[in-house]
Amino acid sequence: MSKKTNTIFFMLGATVFNIVITVACFVLLLVLYGRLLAPVLPANAAAWGLPVIFVAAIVIAFFIYKFAVQFMMKKVDVDNVFDPLFKSRRSRRRD
């Protein structure tokens, strides 16, 4: 496969991975909230739980995604496998 194909597959796979991790974090935090905090909190305070859980799931998924990409970059020689998404205008040759 070419570098561009590898780059496209990586971007698609990374996007799916990020969405799956975000949904998994959201469900896990929602279950923990429902089991631990919701019974203890008053009804009007429980309404704030869903937005806080949503933001927390996004933040946690971001850190998991960041560590996963860093781990992958250590294992794979990125310059030889992937094509850059953006190229500097200075590095392009003018014909």
How is this structure best summarized?
The chain has 95 residues and is mainly alpha-helical. The chain has helices spanning 3-37, 43-46, 49-75, 78-81.
How does this model look, in words?
With 95 residues, the protein is an all-alpha fold. Helix 1 runs antiparallel to helix 3. It contains four helices and no strands.
How much beta, percentage-wise? Answer: under 5%
Structural class: mainly alpha
The CA-CA distance between the termini, in Å, is 28 Å
Biggest sheet overview = none
* Number of structurally distinct domains: 1
Low-confidence stretches: none
The value of Rg in angstroms is 20 Å
> Which geometry do the CA atoms define?
elongated
Count of alpha/pi helices: 4
Element-by-element helix/strand order: HHHH
Helix content: over 70%
Strand elements, count: 0
The average pLDDT value, as a whole number, equals 85
